Amino acid sequence: KHNLCFYWSLCVTVKTVLKIYMFSAATIIKLCRKVDVFSIITKLDVYPGLMVTAGLIHYILNLLHVTVHIRDVCVFLAPVFSGLTAISTYLLTRELWNQGAGLLAACFIAIVPGYISRSVAGSFDNEGIAIFALQFTYYLWVKSVKTGSVFWTIGCCLSYFYMVSAWGGYVFIINLIPLHVFALLLMQRYSRRVYIAYSTFYIVGLILSMQVPFVGFQPIRTSEHMAAAGVFALLQAYAFLQYLKDRLTRQEFQTLFFLGISLAACIVFLTVIYLTYTGRAHKLQPVCVFLLSRLHSYAKIHIPIIASVSEHQPTTWVSFFFDLHILVCTFPAGLWFCIKNINDERVFVALYAISAVYFAGVMVRLMLTLTPVVCMLSAVAFSSVFEHYMGDDTKREKPPEKAEEGLGPNIKSIVTMLMLMLLMMFAVHCTWVTSNAYSSPSVVLASYNHDGTRNILDDFREAYYWLRQNTDEHARVMSWWDYGYQIAGMANRTTLVDNNTWNNSHIALVGKAMSSNESAAYEIMRSLDVDYVLIIFGGVIGYSGDDINKFLWMVRIAEGEHPKDIRESDYFTPQGEFRVDKAGSPTLLNCLMYKMSYYRFGEITPPGFDRTRNAEIGNKDIKFKHLEEAFTSEHWLVRIYKVKSVTSGLSRIVVRFILRTSVLLFFLLFFYFLLECGEA
Amino acid sequence: MTRRSAFVAVCLLFVAALSSEVSADGLVNEDVKRTVDLSTHLAKITAEIVLSNHGQSSVQSFILAVDADLAPHMAYIGASVKGDEEEHGTLELQQTSIQGQRGEFYKVLLPSTLAAGAQLKVKTEMMFSHVLKPFPTQITQAERQLVVFQGNHYLYSPYPTRSQTTRVRLASKTVESYTKLGNPSKTDEIIEYGPFRDVAPFSEDALKIHYENNTPFLTITSITRTIEVSHWGNIAVEETIDLRHTGAILKGPFSRYDYQRQSDSGISSVKSFKTILPASAQDVYYRDEIGNISTSHLQVLDDSVEVEVRPRFPLFGGWKTHYIIGYNLPSYEYLYTLGEQYALKMRLVDHVYDDQVIDYMTVKIILPEGAKNIHVDTPYKIDRMPNQLHYTYLDTFGRPVLVATKNNLVEQHIQDFVVHYTFNKILMLQEPLLVVGAFYILFFTVIIYVRLDFAITKDPAAEVRMKVASITEQVLTLVNRRLGLYRHMDEVVNRYKQSRDTGALNSGRKTLEADHRTLTSEISSLQARLKTEGSDLAEKVGEIQKLDGQVKELVCRSCSEAERLVGGKVKKETYIESEKSLTGRRQELISRIDSLLDAL
């Protein structure tokens, strides 16, 4: 039936983030017309790594006359980079444990759902390349701590630079590495190798990271980078003391040590006083406090916009299991193995694991940083178990320990079988999750009939393409920010707010327009110079992710900025329910969002029955004064309204005026004529 | 009234006399049956004309005229001779002009001369695009589309016409108004004018019809057709199409509710249409900038492939859309070759929808890299642009691209073109060789990198290790050769036992001694070198030497035993016994040496 499926096959296999790829592809196509890569970097207000990578690959391929479209480069960038991630995970695990564990870790990271979600074809996302950069930086760091060679450290810095240019998550590296060094100092594991590695890394990495325009001077200003600086100073002092220790007698050294300590304490004390005096104390906020406040409570209480994104919710146990399956149970064992046989690099992986677990617990999105370390440690656990139970003792001439002789062949085979079963179930789970949760593009919906035939609901693209083709090129579209990128990419029209809008007041203004009544909304829309309003409405087909279901967030965000005009309580029934039927609050039943969603919906059969909310709507007689239905997609999923322009209103007034005056004139003439006749 | 009509008749006669002078060749349109087909968004005007030669001499050609008002919109003009039984042959047309007359004129060359007094039946066909003007120009979704056609009641011709009829076919029964010259009859969708008798040359009389026409007013505002030829057996065709509904513009809102619930809502809008592709078309795709358009169906028929093209949204008046449709064709159906000569024969423009109108077309033909001496035969005049170069996978100097454009095309333009070019078949190997070469260079570089030492610092430990490895290699070969000597000696002894030739035995023993000495000294020198390198392997080599000495001794003893046996100094049984013990010990020693060698 659907034979024209060249592109469709792609659409199905690619994952949800078609919207982002579309947006970014469009951006890149625009950007790549400019030859100079650096001019692109300086003009962007985002992390440029992703775009530069894709642009560079496209440029090189085309230089070799492999004429790949930039879109295809973008689509396949994430899978290619996930391959690189697997390789760097292998390398890192090999440094930590052994080759066997490395291979297992690479296998795990290749299929684990927590990472697949970011690495399927079509997910053109910062995280896609950032995880590779993260793992590779850690590998090079471990290597440089092991060897103490400047070569590896410089490699680590370059990799860190790439990470900084790609993702804001680089803060994780710049805190974890100092933490590692600090832990090594505490554990009396200081060595020259560590000194060389960290000193080089801190200086070169700092300078390189400041070259990224979006980061700029942050590394020396903001508190999340202060830990690195502090550890750097500490390491220098420690090294100096070590040097003195070699030169001085014990007595001299002790005196000097106490003198130094008290001096340092004095300096720190004075600095803190000075900074407090000048009002810059917040820059000394400890890192963890900062992260805590930023990611956790602060975000939740103060910014409804961050809380409104499902990715920023705290992680549930279910999602841990969903994304990691058996690995979440085995990785503590790996951690224990590492701690039991501790050395410099295993200190690192232990810290990595603990901090990543904490962050993943804070919000779902940071599950991503946890996934690689879980894969590595689980691989360590599995590999040790297999080594113990699968060892071939016919080759071993003398069993080194008596205890091992106690392992009968039965126990060995049972344990091995169990472990293999676990791994098999893990693989099955991964395939299932990947095919069910991460393989359908959210832009195209599919439903299945009773006989198994598939219906494709392509309403989003239908409406976006209509916007692209049949509206003015400079038309401005107002919609909730979720659809900003989609409209920019697919419809190629200007939007008021999009997925990258950080200006809360803009979003709040759109929220206010949506939650006000029509005339108030019209004022806002006129002040924002809006030509079209786009909403998503799932009531006809029962699509639950529509704007009415998101509506309360709009109200909350609007209330945050305009508490006088919008009150969340107005939208609830006296019983505190959010209802769209007759019992719903009148404010809700007359707000713009409600009217736009249900315009002419009352006429369809069964009369005005909303399948998403399973209710008959409360306001079926909806009329617009300032808006006009411009387009509604086939299944009513996307509705676009045109804001009547002032000029058309003006012309209507003029026409009415002319008509009235002409009628008046006609009657006057008629009377005059009658009078004339009468006189005659 | 009678006075007036007489005046008109005189005038007409006068004009007729005048014009008969103008058309010096003396041709007269005896009988004209004109059909104006307005049932689609095109105006098709066909006329069956019986031409008769009233002049003195025979004529070779006649003139076909196009009304001045319609001429700018003319997409196609053609004429054919209508025979009695055989198929009519199309005639050649040349554009010409007549002084002092408006309109466009074409000289039609007849296949054979028309003798004086003879008659000929010809059929002319003209297609006009964008001559049906929507009126009112804007309608709401519920309204029907009305259009106006303005033309000529008469056949516009440089020759006098004896008798003619004009039949107008409309799209629907609903007619707002029409001109009523000569009291026309109207039945359903057809209006019949005439017959008009003795019409003067170049006579014009405005025909105006205002009627309902809800047929799809689709126009392809621009189409780019790219044909990419590969000599590996494939021709890829891709059409990028900009489509617009050029009927009455939609006024006011578009209501999906009305469109879905009421069948006559938006009756003039276009929901879908059919595109017919060649029968061998494969891998058809239909998409636009934002991906595959899922609302389409493909049907493979015996003689064609039908695509039901459904744009993402229904097209209302004034709305436009844009899409790409592409497919692959096997080259053996379209590409002909003789030696190095190639000829590509394909359609210049293909079917998009029935009664199509193309405002602007660009055709790009991408030939394989290295095609030379290109020349193109087109079925009608087309504007050639300068050739371009196209670079795709693994191209080095670019593929030649022929570019041509044309305005205002209709269905009649679906005709074949032929491109002739020469191509050296060796060039087909260029790209595979390129890939092979690239991989060769890659592997070679890797080999060089692995084999040669590019380190700027020396690593003494690694060097020692490599030295030791090479020495042990040498030791291995030497020891094996030494063991070989013993086997050789055994053979010598055996032969001696049969031949009893003491001389041979002695010489054999001598060579053994000599060879053994040189080998042993070589091995010990290697052992000394190993020692200087500080490797613990030297001890093992020493052990091997020691064991070897014992083996040597055993060999010598077995040799002397054999001598004694031959000399009759020992009994056979004792010899066999001692021989057995000797070989047993030797085997043991050799296996120990082997295990040591393995350990090396």
TrEMBL record, chain A:
Q: What is its main location?
A: endoplasmic reticulum
Q: What is the lineage of its organism?
A: Eukaryota, Metazoa, Chordata, Craniata, Vertebrata
**Keywords of this protein's UniProt record, alphabetized?**
Endoplasmic reticulum, Glycoprotein, Glycosyltransferase, Magnesium, Manganese, Membrane, Metal-binding, Transferase, Transmembrane, Transmembrane helix
Q: Does the keyword Methyltransferase apply?
A: no
Q: Which protein are we looking at?
A: Dolichyl-diphosphooligosaccharide--protein glycosyltransferase subunit STT3B
Cell location: Endoplasmic reticulum membrane
Q: Set out the biological process GO terms recorded for this chain's protein.
A: post-translational protein modification; protein N-linked glycosylation via asparagine
Q: In which pathway does it act?
A: Protein modification; protein glycosylation
Q: Which organism's genome codes for this protein? A: Poecilia latipinna (sailfin molly)
Complexes and interactors: Component of the oligosaccharyltransferase (OST) complex. There are 2 OST complexes, OST-A and OST-B, which contain STT3A or STT3B as catalytic subunit, respectively. OST-A and OST-B contain common core subunits RPN1, RPN2, OST48, OST4, DAD1 and TMEM258, and OST-B contains either MAGT1 or TUSC3 as specific accessory subunit.
Keyword Ribosomal protein attached = no
Origin, by domain of life? Eukaryota
Required cofactors, per record? Mn(2+); Mg(2+)
GO molecular function: any one? Answer: dolichyl-diphosphooligosaccharide-protein glycotransferase activity
UniProtKB/TrEMBL annotation, chain B:
Please name the pathway: Protein modification; protein glycosylation
* Stretches that traverse the bilayer: 433-452
Q: Which GO terms describe its cellular component?
A: oligosaccharyltransferase complex
- Tell me how this protein sits in the membrane: Single-pass type I membrane protein
**What InterPro entries does the annotation carry?**
Ribophorin_I (IPR007676)
One of its GO biological process terms is: protein N-linked glycosylation via asparagine
- Asked whether the keyword Endoplasmic reticulum is assigned, the reply is yes
Query: Where does it localize?
Result: Endoplasmic reticulum membrane
Return the Pfam families for the record: Ribophorin_I (PF04597)
Keyword Transmembrane: yes or no?
yes
What exactly does this protein do?
Answer: Subunit of the oligosaccharyl transferase (OST) complex that catalyzes the initial transfer of a defined glycan (Glc(3)Man(9)GlcNAc(2) in eukaryotes) from the lipid carrier dolichol-pyrophosphate to an asparagine residue within an Asn-X-Ser/Thr consensus motif in nascent polypeptide chains, the first step in protein N-glycosylation. N-glycosylation occurs cotranslationally and the complex associates with the Sec61 complex at the channel-forming translocon complex that mediates protein translocation across the endoplasmic reticulum (ER). All subunits are required for a maximal enzyme activity.
Q: Which PANTHER family match?
A: DOLICHYL-DIPHOSPHOOLIGOSACCHARIDE--PROTEIN GLYCOSYLTRANSFERASE SUBUNIT 1 (PTHR21049:SF0), RIBOPHORIN I (PTHR21049)
Homology family: Belongs to the OST1 family.
Q: How does it assemble?
A: Component of the oligosaccharyltransferase (OST) complex. OST exists in two different complex forms which contain common core subunits RPN1, RPN2, OST48, OST4, DAD1 and TMEM258, either STT3A or STT3B as catalytic subunits, and form-specific accessory subunits. STT3A complex assembly occurs through the formation of 3 subcomplexes. Subcomplex 1 contains RPN1 and TMEM258, subcomplex 2 contains the STT3A-specific subunits STT3A, DC2/OSTC, and KCP2 as well as the core subunit OST4, and subcomplex 3 contains RPN2, DAD1, and OST48.
> What name goes with this protein?
Dolichyl-diphosphooligosaccharide--protein glycosyltransferase subunit 1
